[in-house]
Amino acid sequence: MEAYYGAIEGGGTKFVCAVGNGPNNIRAEARFATTTPEEVMAQITDFFHQQEKKLGALAAIGFASFGPLDPDPASPMYGHILPTPKPGWTNSNVVGMLRKEFDIPIVFDTDVNGAALGEWRWGKAQGLQTFMYLTVGTGIGGGAYVEGKLLHGLVHPEMGHILIKHDMEKDPFEGVCPFHGDCFEGLASGVAIEKRWGMRGALLTPDHAAWDLEVEYIAQALTTYTMTLSPQRIIIGGGVGTLAHLLPRVQQRTRELINGYIQSPAILENIESYIVNPGLGNRSGVLGAIALAEQSVQGS
Ligand code: ZN
To answer: Which residues are CB-contacts of 29 (< 8 A; sequence separation ≥ 6)?
Structure first.
């Protein structure tokens, strides 16, 4: 009998849920607005139960969520959303709510780690041992797969909050991060672009000065990640990260900033296949949740 998995991609504005076992076999999908944890988790539970009536019991559930969150199964706060400005979600035990209804493996990780795993399983990171997935959208976050495993470390990486060089003459904008002001996310997220220029990034033409700053900040961040993680590839998703006019400029500027220090053909000669957009488009997250579930059953 074919195994089906439940997938949850938890985002700041909506939750995307699916039942299936791969990109070509999604049997059902649903979206729910990110209201309260109790309401959203009840809607998801109902959706999965309905699908189980048609397809039989789910084999496992993968849950890739906005953070911060606790992904350590040995921790007392495992399965909880950690303190967040999002009203009602701080310390909510979202995995516990699912556990009451489903006695199957439930894997909980960050949205970006989920997306990274989705790209490893079916997208642009197939066969790689060490790579990262960065989303540049409303917010900025990164997930990493290191030596064959998703990276968690102390809690989980927060790649959007790295500090970068900020030239106050070129860009006097103070940044929007409530914790750091002008960290990477504070300067380069969709929220920062909109606040700095008074309009959404989607409305700014490709020759707008906004993109000179954006390319510089993203390239600085990618340089830092390249120096620290030594990824074999960097995948950039998100509404800003997948703008067609941005990618070639980011590739070129990152290579300039690395400045020949890393003597790898991947960077010196093939930067266009080193920094890439996702192979799964905007489906990396929800398919990644399926991949998380699949791994828990296969124990790989
Ligand atoms: Zn920050």
So the answer is: 16, 17, 18, 19, 286
